[in-house]
Amino acid sequence: MSDESPPADQAIELAERLLVESLDQTGAADARRMKSVADLIEDPTAKTLSMVMTDRLFRSSNPFRAARSWRDLIDRIGIGGSFSWLDRLLLKTGALASRFVPGLVILAVRKRLRSESREVILPAGEPRLTHYLKTRRHGGARVNLNQLGEAVLGEEEAERRLEAALALLARPDVNYVSIKISAIFSQINLVAWEDTLESIKERLRTLYRAALPDGKFVNLDMEEYRDLDLTVTAFCEVLDEPAFREFSAGLVLQAYLPDSIEIHEELTAWAIRRVESGGAPIKIRIVKGANLAMEKVEAEWHGWYQAPHFSKHETDAGLKRMLEFACRPENARAVRIGVGSHNLFDVALALVLRERNEVAEFIEIEMLEGMATPQARAVKDKAGSLLLYAPIVKEEDFGSALAYLIRRLDENTSPGNFLADLFSLRPGSAAWNAQKDRFLAAWEDRYNVPATSHRARLPDRPADRFSNEPDTDWTRAVNREAVIAVATPSEPAPEAGKPEVEAAIQAAADAQSSWAGVSLSDRAGLLRACGAELAATRFESIAVLRQEGKKAIAEADTEISEAIDFASYYAETGSVLPDATTDGPLGTIVVAPPWNFPFAIPCGGILAALMAGNAVIFKPAPEVTRIGWWLVNRLWKAGVPRDALQFVACSDGETGRQLIVDERVDGVILTGAYETARKFQDWRPSLNLFAETSGKNGIVVSALSDRELAARDLARSAFGHSGQKCSAASLGILEAEVYDDPMFRRQLRDAAASLAVGPAGDPKCIVTPLVQVPGKNLLRALTQLDPGEEWLL
Fold it and tell me: Rounded to 5 degrees, what angle do the CA atoms 72, 77, 81 make?
């Protein structure tokens, strides 16, 4: 085809030649692997079993537990029909034999899984790693090593990951390593942007200094959207330092993020200025991205748009737009490009564009080790070189590295994925033509694809039903800056003695009937106005919660979201009553919330009572009266009548008792200690008491659990909100195997020890001061050991 032909047409022709050449090089073992992937796509049962079995079989060291779990998986999921007859036979006979010789069977299954994955996750031990590197070097391929390991829950493991990367850089047979910022710094906190950024930069300097003398290459990997701006900012700021002006390094951009298009262009402009001023070029590795499922979960959890594109077509189009921009001569000389793809159409497009623009020396093709080996050989022959991305893991960490394997399995068997169709691809086949059509459609739409962040705006909330209020997105600089800059409201709450309490009770009783006469729809409208006012003053409310409630910023933020949710929920559910339900208020309600959630919990009680037509007397906990005063003023400003919502900041003694025993009070909503609820009942046995009281909260960790996740969640639950929330995990109930597991103990200790401790006014602090001085029993538990106990930290 002529060089004057459109690039897409040339790419299609080249992709077909690459396919034919790869088919000629496909051996029996390669064909079996491709067929197994194709079969998994056609057989969801087999795919599910493969993924779950890979995840679960390495969890317990007890062969009886592991075998029983394995049999349960097979019984519950089934085997499916895509496994070979031999594998189906082995699965069935193995499940039966595991009842009698579980140790032998589980050992054999684990060895099989490790063997099957050995070409994708390489052993980091010797002499295998040296042999692998030597083999690849003799074959003419370069290697990019990525050290996998246990989850990075704390700074001890982050330091180990950093040391592992430095050890690789010190090897004479290694010249290229990849690492994520989240692997070398465990305490990423977007609100504490400057502190987090400086910690990451210091560790990057350590890596770059190690790589600089011999000109070795350090690539910053990318996984979570959360880390995108931090990675880019740290990368640029460190490379702008005089010591690294002549050092060339790189990072990854994921094409499934709309943000990557703009960031790619900004990085290129920066790199051009850097090169023009005598600095070294940089490299960007462009990949499609492989964390879609978790990004969707994260977005759904917080009420945001997902960060990635909404369709595979948009991702494909974004990739092609980035490739075309990267291959412009003026850009390629400052930003070398690694094209990380197994899609022969995308690979061919990169090869065509680099030849047309005469920038072949700056554009490199990269592929995953162990994936589609015949295609990799064909591409290497055509491109003249190939960089293989090779994850390595120590044998003892293999179980922790399985997340990578599962992500790859899920990605490669997803509908429309090029590797998923690879077994059935032939020039002119239906699968080939479908892939070609996708390629052409994406090329045509490359400048129609969104190029701005999805997270720059919030999803529209449905008008006809309840939906949760989105939390603040701290990836947005405007939010981080606003919450730090906001002034803390300083108005103290007026103190109430017995006369003020008496006046409040009488005023509420007098106002109750007129408030009950307000229609349900009008009450719902007022609650919606309350939600809008709380949303509009979110950052001011966070400031008050930080100052008096000792809340960390992220914890205060979700409490505001919960308060807004109460307003929306009661407005929606209370305005249309179920059949056979009558709208009859109880009368005057006292809301007595706790000090540990001083915004959301009182807001929920107040608004529920108001929506039902009750007058309300709000008595905040004595430790947090300013927060209560700030909250009630927001509700009054939104339109709630002051006589229908009274505020009394009184003591918990005799003055507070007056609110409970007075017959004009028709009910009390209490969130607090069990003893307090009993005391209220003793004071007034006929009281309508709606009480949510204290208990003992524990986390049960079984031998078959994901222990890394359990360690993380146990530390978060125990020390989030400084351990003062009613649902904080004060007890870990562990199976003996978990309790005796030194890795679990180490990870739990590391996760807890790494949490930043300090004042709530410091954005980086996660464990903030106690609001209430510990009582006698709690103080003893915090400072003394019983017989047989020992401190973990």
Answer: 125
Long-range contacts of 533-537 (CB under 8 A, 24+ apart): 533/634, 533/635, 533/637, 533/638, 534/560, 534/563, 534/564, 534/567, 534/603, 534/634, 535/469, 535/564, 537/634
DSSP assignment letter at 328: S
User: Which residues carry out catalysis?
Assistant: 692, 726
612 and 606 in contact (C-beta within 8 Å)? no
Quick one: CA torsion of 13, 15, 20, 26, rounded to 10 degrees? 180
Phi, psi of 718 (to 5 degrees): -70, -35
Instruction: pLDDT band for 40, please (50, 70, 90 cuts).
Output: low
Stated pTM of the model? 0.93
Q: Calculate Rg over the CA atoms of the chain.
A: 31
Annotated domain spans of the chain: 7-43+118-444, 486-688, 698-783
Average pLDDT over residues 220-236: 96
Q: How far apart are CA 653 and CA 724, in angstroms?
A: 23
Q: H or E element: which one contains 14?
A: helix 7-24
How far apart, in whole angstroms, are the C-alpha atoms of residue 314 and residue 332?
24
Q: Please tell me the predicted confidence (pLDDT) of residue 205.
A: 98
Strands 122-123 and 142-147: unpaired
Neighbours of 626 (CB within 10 A): 22
Is the pLDDT score of 537 beyond 90?
yes
In terms of phi and psi (left: phi > 0; alpha: psi -120 to 50; beta: otherwise), the region of 428 is left
- Expressed in angstroms, the distance from the first to the final Cα of the chain is 69
Q: Name which of 126, 221, 141, 121 is nearest 177 in CA terms.
A: 221
- What fold does the segment set 698-783 form as a domain? Aldehyde Dehydrogenase; Chain A, domain 2 (3.40.309)
Rounded Cα–Cα distance for residues 358 and 349 (Å): 14
- Using the 8-state DSSP alphabet, how is residue 290 labeled? S
Report how far residue 346's alpha carbon sits from residue 342's, in angstroms, rounded to the nearest whole number: 8
- Which pLDDT tens digit goes with each residue over 452-468? 999 999 998 887 789 99
Residue 52: Cβ within 10 Å count: 15
Question: What string of DSSP letters covers 58-112?
Answer: TT-S-HHHHHHHHHHHHHHH---S-S-HHHHHHHHHHHHHTTT-HHHHHHHHHHH
pLDDT of res. 2: 52
Domain 7-43+118-444 in CATH 3.20.20.220: yes
SS3 content of the chain, % helix, strand, coil (to 5): 55, 10, 35
pLDDT of residue 290: 83
Judge whether 7-43+118-444 and 486-688 match in fold: no
What is 486-688's CATH topology?
Aldehyde Dehydrogenase; Chain A, domain 1 (3.40.605)
Question: Look-up: residue for tokens 């595991």?
Answer: 98
Q: What is the mean pLDDT of residues 689-704?
A: 90
SS3 713: helix
**Closest by alpha carbon to 552, among 190, 152, 181?**
190
Residues β-bridged to residue 366 = 340, 387
Cβ(669)–Cβ(591) below 8 Å: yes
